[in-house]
Design a protein that fits this description.
The chain has 320 residues and is an alpha+beta fold. The chain is built from four helices and eleven strands. The protein has one domain: Lipocalin (Beta Barrel).
């Protein structure tokens, strides 16, 4: 009788300990999964909207800055990222401090190109620093915040071809082909906050390369002596397979880092196009499409506030 009672107590204690262990392990995992889903929803919405390419005015890619015959062109493009994404209105009910995803950073790309009569060469160098900061909805108990950073460098070579002389003495057509290779240092930082106090922080660091293959077409239409309109299109295929192969096998970390890659590398459609304007003062030329696009941007999604800005300038030097 006594032995049976002791055995029951041991079984009861073992069951309690097992249940406690399951709660300690499963509950945080569920919280992380829910936060991952919330963050992923914001990223999916941002990427989906960005892939639409609905900006009518936009600066040409720096590789589309084509110098005149027997000329060397020194060009520079720069972009400043400033975007905030928030959840849909109906998912914010009862939350005074909803989740948000803030994208900041910059990119700078110097470009050198030289032109013969019908063919030319271009050489690109690029550097940038981007950050994606996710702040979870404040539920007063447990928050799983995430910060992803990307530092990248890239080099590229391009060839462009002018298939025929000016049409009607006002239009130049140029075809561009080439590619870049980026090297990236990517960090993902998880910060666990409980009741307003940071309880845990861990960092995942990846180093990988990202090749990009590009082709483009533009028409430079002279409107005035020093002012032209440039309809353009560009196709870029970006290969992130090396980034994916560097990821840890841990399910939660892998999901988070995969979504980082979506934000940093797949936030533009493969095919981009737009209308740019170039104003020339002496040997300097300024591309105005990105500036016009900034001021003329439509409201777009109510979940996204995008105040990113891009600008490109170039300087031409006559050859000997």
């Amino acid at each position: 009788m006594f032995a049976s009672s002791t055995s029951n107590r041991k079984y009861f204690l073992a069951t309690c300990l097992l249940n406690t262990a399951i709660v300690c392990v499963v509950v945080p995992s569920r919280l992380q999964a829910e936060e991952s889903s919330e963050r992923r929803d914001l990223i999916d919405h941002y990427v989906e909207e960005s892939q639409k390419n609905d900006a009518f005015f936009a600066s040409t890619p720096i590789t589309h800055v084509v110098p005149s015959f027997n000329t060397i062109s020194y060009a520079l493009s720069a972009i400043s990222y400033d975007t905030v994404i928030i959840p849909e209105e109906n998912s914010r009910s009862g939350t005074s401090d909803p989740a948000s995803l803030t994208l900041t950073g910059y990119g700078v790309s110097p470009y050198l190109s030289l032109s013969l009569k019908r063919i030319g060469l271009g050489f690109s160098v690029e550097a940038g620093d981007r950050q994606a900061e996710y702040t979870a909805a404040n539920n007063g108990q447990y928050n799983d915040n995430r910060t992803a950073t990307l530092k990248y460098r890239g080099v590229g070579a391009f060839i462009y071809w002018i298939p025929f002389d000016k049409m009607w003495n006002k239009v130049n057509t140029t075809v561009i082909l080439g590619g870049r290779n980026y090297t990236a240092r990517h960090q993902h930082i998880r910060t666990a906050v409980s009741a307003g106090i940071e309880t845990n922080r861990n960092t995942t660091t990846l180093n990988y390369s990202v090749p990009s293959y590009e082709g483009g077409l533009n028409f430079n239409i002279s409107l005035l002596k020093s002012f032209s309109m440039i309809p353009w299109g560009n196709y870029a295929s970006i290969d992130t397979s090396n980034a994916m192969s560097q990821m840890r096998s841990d399910a939660f970390e892998r999901d988070y880092v995969e979504s980082d890659v979506e934000v940093f590398w797949n936030d533009k459609p493969d095919l981009t196009y737009g209308l740019d304007f170039a104003a020339k003062v002496g040997s300097f030329q300024v591309r105005l499409g990105g500036l016009l696009g900034f001021f003329a941007a439509s409201a777009g999604s109510s979940q996204i506030r995008d105040e990113s800005l891009s600008l490109a300038i170039s300087f031409e030097q006559k050859g000997n």
